[in-house]
Design goal:
about 425 residues, alpha+beta, Immunoglobulin-like, L,D-transpeptidase catalytic domain-like, 9-stranded mixed beta sheet, 4-stranded antiparallel beta sheet, elongated
């Protein structure tokens, strides 16, 4: 009996001791929490604060998307924000070079103020704030289209120039174009005269525009290239986005008659001067047809070897330095130019050239009163020279800027739109 009571008492004591130990263990845990209660509240506050910042209502969008390649050099880079305003935007190349840009007046968008470079990687970092001042951040990196995956069109005439009535808009692409219709749709040529202007593809790389008749003198012609992002061939995209304009000068058309060996210079339909000439010899006839002046050189060198006139040793049949007052009419080498090496009696009497049209410059290349000097000084790029009665074939329309040798129906047949 006594031993039994003792055992029960020991059991109770043990249970109590266990309870104490348990309570002690629990108290120890509570004590730890109590001692760190201030620190825990502080950490939670920081978490809440960070969450609040992350929950800014401002939504930033950067284009192109992060990781993009083949991005446009004109329109791709842009930052916009909704439900907030932009506070800072930076754009740099991978080497850290800053790109100029500007946040809009309403602080809702940003864009670079310069054209981007091809085959270049850029990084944009943007920050914005919502109405409560909570910040949002976004960044993206992208690479612009490479030269291998893009095309450009080199065009003539130049922006702001004044040209003759025969000057077509001629565009030469640096890549072969297979999607001709899409590319042509991205190009518009208009004139203040209201003339209909149509494009004509000579090949996969060249597209010219002209009206049915010569441009109206004094009119303004505007070329608009909206080729950015236009796929010209598989995987090859346009990058140009620009507008240029040029002015049509007075109407000057010169009629060269190889039979009478004269040239009548006409302005606005009236003959202002008749000049004796020497055209191509019977062995080397001058091309016939309508030709447009594409370049002017006060002096140039003419070597027969460059245009296929060679002797048995492969040397040029002629090599003339300082040919004065030279005006190019074809890509293949037809010029109308001054001639100081021929006799005065040649001009107006004998056709002696290798295919060019020669004017008398025998008084000296620097004499302003020669026939060659007068014609040079009174001509501009884009003026028309209509060569007749040579006995040779009509010049190919793509040999220079000479598409006027196609009828209007033939010209329009070469359009893809």
């Amino acid at each position: 009996m006594t031993n039994s009571k003792r055992r029960r008492g020991l059991s109770v004591a043990s249970a109590l001791l266990g309870g104490v130990l348990v309570l002690s263990a629990c108290s120890g845990s509570d004590g730890d929490n109590a001692s760190g209660s201030d620190g825990g509240d502080s950490s939670q506050a920081k978490v809440d604060e960070a969450a609040a910042k992350k929950n800014s209502e401002a939504e930033i969008e950067i284009t192109p998307k992060d990781g993009s390649d083949n991005a446009s050099i004109n329109n791709s880079a842009k930052v916009t924000v909704s439900k907030g305003t932009l506070t800072e935007v930076t754009m740099t190349t991978t080497d850290g070079t800053a790109v100029e840009g500007e946040i809009s007046a309403d602080k809702k968008s940003w864009a670079p103020s310069v054209q981007l470079e091809r085959s270049t990687s850029y990084k944009i970092t943007a920050a914005a704030a919502d109405s409560e001042g909570r910040e949002a951040h976004e960044n993206a990196s992208f690479t612009t289209v490479s030269p291998a995956n893009s095309f450009i069109g080199n065009f003539t005439p130049e922006d702001g120039s004044t040209v003759g009535v025969g000057m077509p808009v001629s565009i030469n692409f640096d890549k072969a174009i297979t999607n001709k219709a899409d590319v042509q749709k991205g190009i518009t040529v208009s004139t203040s005269s209201g003339q209909e202007v149509v494009g004509h593809w000579f090949n996969a790389n060249r597209l010219d525009f002209r009206p049915e008749d010569y441009w109206q003198e004094g009119s303004t012609v505007t070329l608009k290239l909206a080729l950015d992002g236009v796929e010209g061939a598989e995987g090859v995209y346009g990058v140009q986005q620009k507008t240029v304009s040029f002015t049509i000068g007075r109407n000057q058309v010169s009629i060269v008659d190889a039979k009478t060996k004269t040239m009548k210079v006409m302005q606005d339909g009236k003959v202002v001067k008749t000049i004796p000439i020497s055209a191509g010899s019977p062995e080397n006839k001058t091309y016939a047809g309508i030709m447009v002046m594409s370049e002017k050189f006060k002096e140039t060198r003419m070597n027969g070897a460059t245009v296929g006139f060679t002797d048995d040793d492969g040397k040029g049949e002629y090599d003339i330095k300082d040919v004065p007052h030279a005006i190019r009419l074809t890509t293949s080498g037809t010029f109308i130019h001054g001639n100081y090496w021929g006799a005065d009696s040649v001009f107006g009497n004998v056709n002696t050239s290798h295919g060019c049209v020669g004017l008398n410059d025998t008084k000296g290349a620097n004499d302003p009163d020669t026939e060659g000097a007068w014609f040079y000084n009174n001509s501009i790029v884009g003026d028309v020279v209509d060569i007749r009665n040579t006995g040779d074939k009509t010049v190919a329309p793509d040999n220079g800027l000479n598409g006027w040798n196609l009828s209007w129906a033939e010209w329009k047949a070469g359009s893809e739109v």
